[in-house]
Specification:
This protein is of the alpha+beta class and about 130 residues long. Helices cover about 15% and strands about 40% of the residues. The chain has a single domain, classed as 2,3-Dihydroxybiphenyl 1,2-Dioxygenase, domain 1. Strand 6 and strand 7 form a beta hairpin.
Amino acid sequence: MQLSHLCEVILYVEDMSAQVRFYRDVLGLRLTHPPGIDDFSDQYWVTFDTGSCTLALHGGGHRRIGEDSPKIVFLTEDLAASRSLLVSRGVAISAPRSPAPGHAVCDGKDPEGNPFSIEARSAVGG
């Protein structure tokens, strides 16, 4: 198993518009998704370029401790092999799911209950 790098941090947010304004306008991060819109109030997935890692804002957060915690996501080339190795090491990790085309994800928690995911990405449409 090789986790190549931290690729994403997901923040669960309650007020998407306010959070976009903060990260884009106050901190100056470059918005990468969705392109070409001004009203973010009905968006559930907004991403920013932070260099080698993506900051993703995920709508639907309610400030619930433990449920809306930030999630760290590690990239892997072989999701099945990585999941298998983690299971053999005693990690409870979900079956793969596909939240978006070209993305396969398994979710787990560290020993203190902090959420993490391992993710494999493939080219889409191409």
